[in-house]
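Quick start: what a row looks like.
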Amino acid sequence: MDKENLRNIHNIRFMLEIIRANVTVMVSDLDRAIEFYTERLGLKLVRRYNNHWADIEGPGITIGLHPTRKIINPGDNMQIGIRVADVQHAQSLLQNSGIKFNATADQVRMVHFNDPDGNTLYLIQT
């Protein structure tokens, strides 16, 4: 990359002022998704715009829930990580609320589970 391109990249970085960022999760049922992310995971519903959008917040993350009429194809296209102090304790709490965990062969203390639309989330202990 030449100096001119590097200078342009540098200038763009300082022209763009990001106020807030979020991860958008497409959902088939907004009420069900809000219940999962707030009641089961303990995140906070900050704003809801009728049946068009909901902002869910937790430490260091904002998740935008957006209903879609399109078919949601669950898969490995997105994952949301949740860092916890004790993964076994957190897994036990979530299992008691009805969340089923997927088997994993990870070498770290990490467990995977899915939201109601099949989006993958994981708990990780550091």
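That is the whole record. The longest strand covers residues 61-67. The first helix runs from residue 3 to 15.
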